[in-house]
Amino acid sequence: MKLLLKILVLACVTLAPTAQAQDEAPSQTLITNVKIWDGLKDRLTNGSVLVEGNIIKEVGGSVSAPGATLVDGGGRTLMPGLIDMHSHLCLQEGMAEGKTAFDQMAMGAFTAHVLLDYLDQGFTTARDAGCNILGVAKAVNQGRIHGPRLYPSGGFLSQTGGHADTGNFNDQPGYVDDLERHGFGYIVDDVGEVRRAARQNFRAGATQIKLMAGGGVASEFDPIHMTQFSEEELRAAVEVAEDYGSYVLVHAYHDRSVNRAIDAGVKVIEHNFLVSEDTIKRMKKEGVALSLQAVMSLEAFADPESITFFSADQKKKATQVNAGAKQMIGWAYKHDLLIVTGGDMFGKAYVGRQADNLRIIPKEIPGVTPYQVLKTATSDAATVLSWSGGMNPYKYGTLGTITEGGYADLILVDGNPLDGLDALIRDNVHFVMKDGAVYKNTLRP
User: DSSP 3-state assignment of 44?
Assistant: First the structure.
């Protein structure tokens, strides 16, 4: 509670962005005495960064700006704000909680707290991989709610009996699920229904579309070996996304589901933990990105008894995923896939640990360096976000790097993150700026 109150004060009162008259010059902030990791190169450089308004104006060794607000970094490392590529910001203790335990007003209130917590951890951007987040994303973009930049997928698209089918055992075909009515997910069972749901998500502000293409762990009706959606149905979603200039990501674990999705034109595979090395090679050849959830697969699923809202069957499926995860991740780095990282971490046991999704990778996968992992949550993540094309709500700067003309999404951390990712632990993140506004500053004057 003390942490939450601190975040609320920092984000909503003393440090929140303030209105500026149209005839005033943009405010300037000069961050000095820092070692800069730019999100691209495997080295740090000494220098300063000048922010003007919400854009990085100058990066160099001798930057000056009379009248600018000065931030002395004290020799710390300045780096791009982190990007989580698989968030479920409106989930709390499982997919069905907003149907069975709380109404959408309560779920929205919970979400607002999570948004502030992401900022406190140094995550200035999140790609939401499915839930009722489109209205929240609109409010964040308009400055009505404080939170990271959001790239929302909108409601999951799932077939009957798929990974997002959270209905009851006795539901009949054609039922209207409560979660579907609230835009949490859509149960769609032919090409026409897929097109309608995908268009509805884009209509309401989705930046990309998420489908459940195979069985999962945290669901009742879909065995993990299951393949979901026909190629024609998957292709229908891809065609809608392409018409909007965007792309499709899918939840999939094994060869059959992943390869069917690639056949249909899907650009990003989430999870992927049970595939063969041949499928990894195909992903590399065809430019398909991997979205990696390391804590859930390597840690949480190694101890599924700790996930209190899992059933006995879900715990068994988690154990199966854990057995294949380390091998798959090793192959992905071996073949130099385009890898992005996202926690898929929600619930009170995990939501505050987003950086651990990065920290665990070099500890568990031999030969993987902090530099490789850092790029998955900065510049490489920004590459995948750019695939949303014209649906990208952030068109006037770049993300994931410290470069002139980029958005001013910056964090200051203790130590050198290229030497070790413990630098990303929340208590080591002393300064957080998103879009030129300061949301956290624990630096001593």
Answer: coil
- Domain of 97, CATH number, reads 3.20.20.140
CA 295 to CA 360: how far, in whole Å? 7
Token pair of 51, please? 């922010």
The predicted pLDDT at position 13 comes to 36
Please report where in the chains the tokens 């609109």 appear, as a residue: 138
CA torsion angle 114 119 120 123 (round to 10): 110
For the four alpha carbons of 244, 245, 249 and 250, in that order, the dihedral sign comes to positive
Task: Report the greatest alpha carbon distance in the chain.
Answer: 69
Indicate the number of domains in the chain.
2
Helix 356-364 vs helix 312-334: crossing angle, to nearest 10: 70
User: Do 348 and 221 lie in a common domain?
Assistant: yes
* Residue after which a domain boundary falls, among 350, 373, 391: 391
If asked whether residues 282 and 208 sit together in one domain, one would say: yes
The pLDDT score that the predictor gives to residue 174 is: 54
Output the pTM of the full model.
0.91
Judge whether residue 7 has pLDDT over 70: no
- C-alpha to C-alpha distance for 16 and 4, rounded to whole angstroms: 16
Say yes or no: 322 and 433 in one domain.
no
Q: How far is CA 193 from CA 159, 190, 196, 199, 230, in A?
A: 10, 5, 5, 10, 13
Do 381 and 388 touch, CB atoms closer than 8 A?
A: no
Are 212 and 148 part of one and the same domain? Answer: yes
Range of the domain at 142: 83-391
- Can you tell me which residue has the tokens 């800069």? 36
CATH code of 16's domain = 2.30.40.10
**What mean pLDDT do residues 396-409 have?**
97
